[in-house]
Amino acid sequence: MEKKILRAGIVGSGFAAKFHYEALQRVFSTKVEISGAYSATPQKLLDFTAARGLRAFGSLEDLIDHADVIHVCTPPVTHEPIVMAALNKDKQVIVEKPFTGYFGDGSETFNGETFPRAKGLEHCLGSINRMLQAEKAGKGRIMYAENWVYAPAIQKEKELLQKTGAQILWMHGEESHSGSHSLTYGQWKFSGGGSMIGKGCHPLSAAIYLKHVEGRARNGKPIRPKTISARTHAITRMPGFKNEGYLRTTYKDTEDFALLHVIFEDGTIADLFASELVMGGVHNWIEVNTSNHRTICNINPNTAMQAYTPDGKYFDNIYVTEKTETKQGWSSMSPDESWFTGYQHEMEAFYRSAAYGDEIESDSRLASDSMATIYAGYLSAEKKGAEVEITIL
Ligand SMILES: NC(=O)c1ccc[n+]([C@@H]2O[C@H](COP(=O)([O-])OP(=O)(O)OC[C@H]3O[C@@H](n4cnc5c(N)ncnc54)[C@H](O)[C@@H]3O)[C@@H](O)[C@H]2O)c1
Fold first, then answer.
1. What is the chain's percent helix, strand, coil content, to nearest 5?
2. Is residue 225 reached through a cis peptide bond, with omega within 30 degrees of 0 on the bond before it?
3. Could you give the number of structural domains in the chain?
């Protein structure tokens, strides 16, 4: 069969734009032609496109007109308008995590720490609804770039659930590291929150996805999250925080630690951590305890390759793994990080969906469950961990 040709348009020219570009090189089911990129920072856009021989577009509209699949690789505050612009032109859209959120009232005095969380939840649900309606009304589909869903360990757990008919009883997991590189991260008006949304969305979405899978396998319909109790803390902004220079401390009005306790419709539970307080590289894992098996899904670090050097200078030009402070001594070298994180698998799957109509594993329903849970979580954290009902859209 002739491979279908799809034109990709990348919005953004930062970290996510780069790994989307790399992942596109590993899409094999379709022929991808990258039309080019558009970004709000002209010089960064030119650097990004020149290095890859891509066309730099002067406007979002122009890029959308020249592409079939739009990649939203921009800060969370911009996701909804870009997704809407793409859907309104019947384009397929791949949107980075977190799907959306509440980004304040636009005033100079907006403070992410003090706004009423009920208002944030209401606005976030409004934003989700608008995108779901636009998706329903047109031909374009939302593909939610939650790479954890496509990480091989999570996809293997999917197979276990489907073949064993297990009930997941308790999951616990985490995404943590020593802090984000993006300057917009840490300012609520751009990021829509701190660790809970920026990092917690990953293990949370994986947990919700696996309960969706379990529900479909056992009863033909997904098991969805019902309530959440959450706590958030701003540890690096405490007056007594001992800053030794290893952790990022650039968070203006967001939390750098979050704890989420989620109860699903069937009464089973997930406990998830997210933080900017962990050294030694990205710490991404989820453990799944079920009625007939237990798995520990390590995304980072994993032991596919262990490396040792007596002096970090030997590895100066060698990529070891994301966000380690030093290369000296033992390290968990990732021989193919994008494979373990699921970046290339999600891209391959999204292009199969866009070209041939394959079912989308990480779709707008998962994105919306995940965001509704997180903003209910912020309301719970405001109430110091009281249980809050999750609105399922
Ligand atoms: N899945 C993952 O593992 C992962 C990892 C990192 C980032 N992300 C997500 O990717 C998104 C981007 O993060 P990043 O780290 O690349 O940020 P970044 O700061 O490195 O880059 C953001 C880019 O967006 C551009 N931009 C900002 N506003 C824009 C607008 N209105 N229109 C067009 N371009 C605009 C900027 O010019 C910049 O090029 C975020 O949603 C983030 O959460 C996901």
1. 40, 20, 40
2. no
3. 2
Q: Please report, to the nearest 10 degrees, the dihedral formed by the alpha carbons of residues 215, 341, 70, 49 taken in order.
A: 180
Amino acid present at 191: S
Q: Mark which of 120, 146, 172 sits at the end of a domain.
A: 146
- What is the distance between the alpha carbons of residues 238 and 117, in angstroms, rounded to a whole number? 22
Residue indicated by tokens 């491979």: 3
CA of 67 to the centre of ligand 1 (A): 19
How do strand 142-145 and strand 92-96 relate by DSSP bridges? parallel
> Roughly what angle, to the nearest 10 degrees, separates helices 79-88 and 117-137?
20
Same domain, 45 and 175: no
Helices (H) and strands (E) in the chain, counts: 13, 14
Instruction: Give me ligand 1 centre to Cα 240, in Å.
Output: 32
Question: pLDDT tens-digit profile of 69-100?
Answer: 999 999 999 999 999 999 999 999 999 999 99
The predicted model scores a pTM of 0.97
218 and 183 housed in the same domain: yes
> What's the pLDDT tens digit per position in 34-59?
999 999 999 999 999 999 999 999 99
Question: At which of 119, 146, 173 does a domain end?
Answer: 146
Measured from the Cα of 74, ligand 1's closest atom is 24
SS3 111: coil
The phi, psi pair for 74, rounded to 5°, reads -125, 170
| Residue 315 structural domain | 147-346+368-389
Asked, for residue 351, whether it belongs to a domain, the answer is no
Cβ atoms of 8 and 94 within 8 Å: the answer is no
Using the atom order of ligand 1, give the atom closest to the CA of residue 181.
15
